[in-house]
Amino acid sequence: MKNFLKKLKRVKLRDLIQVWKLPMAVLPAVIYRRIHKDLWIICEDEMEARDNGYWFFKYLRENHPRQECVYAINSRSVDYDKVRKLGRTVEYGSLMHWILYLASTKKLSSQKAGNPNASVFYFLEVYGILRDKRIFLQHGITVSDLDWLYYGYTKMARFVCGAYPEYRFVEDRFGYPKGNVLYTGFCRFDHLHDYQRDPRLILIMPTWREWIADEDQRLPVYEGTREIPKTNYFRQWSAFINDERLDELAREYGVHFVFYPHRNMQKYMEYFPKGREAISIVCSKDWDIQELLKRASLMVTDYSSVFFDFIYMKKPVVFFQFDYKHFRKRQYKEGYFNYKDNPFTDRATKAEDLFPLMKKYIENDYKVSDSYLQSHEEYFRLYDTNNCGRVYEAVKHV
Known about the structure:
Largest sheet: 7 strands, parallel
Number of strands: 13
Number of helices: 18
CATH topology of the largest domain: Rossmann fold
CATH class of the largest domain: Alpha Beta
Radius of gyration: 22 Å
CATH architecture of the largest domain: 3-Layer(aba) Sandwich
Distance between the termini: 30 Å
């Protein structure tokens, strides 16, 4: 009951306004399901199609065209046309989306929610009113101990993992019934084998801070300010973007830096400085993230799990973690992966330590160590282009 009341407080007015669609969708959904007996509905964030959901949808259309499936996406998304060319789409959040979601036999998403209305369907699904088959394709490899992904908070039928230690951790700790957690590899990993590395491109990809938001009262509580540009996150990354040592590295080695913040931070792009000549400040409208990952030779991040995509491609990663204790206390608890001591990465907590690390990798032509490669074999026991195929076989039998 305590958890129920806590969740109820988070329901917003716009969620309640949409509730009328539920009774309107029920009868059409029942009729639709009798005619279309095995519809799969797939999605990611409503404005995107570039993650595990998109790649699985593409795989289905190209390899199993007889499987009826539909992709839910906002028609204003920059990715809309490429999805529409593959197969059927439905407007995210529309009445038809509600109908098809209720009528579908399998619901696949790279997001925990992955439904027309997060608040409504949370109560329907987690509290057992709607007993459906939801498959969590994941947005990134789970690195930390995320209690909001525990089975009691999701009731998902399958939880897809991209790395073997992650699979063991989730299976042991998150409370899913035996067989619900799968190690298949991520669908998007199928397309991380054919890449051409650009030795001039260095990718900077910090993640978000969940307490940094205009409407979030935790911001003044945690950081003593209501002004987002004054937060430690923006001060640290702004200083990095404006650091003259970027230009020095660019002149000496011919490299260029691309700064691509987490999508939850991209609505605050105006608070980042324009940067020096050596660095480009970009967002999802400018670049497809997978193409950036495939092209870049070195990644600098703080805690973003996207670093595992880089490691999957056997490329070097450097962590810049200026607020480690605060992040652990306020956002994600430590899981199985040790940011401070692991075989894959180097770590800096201050900018003066970060630049020598980047220079070291540039001068060494971005080579990785033998221990890195040995650990890669343990983390990615499945290292091939059949990840989508394994997910399909697993989903088919749910």
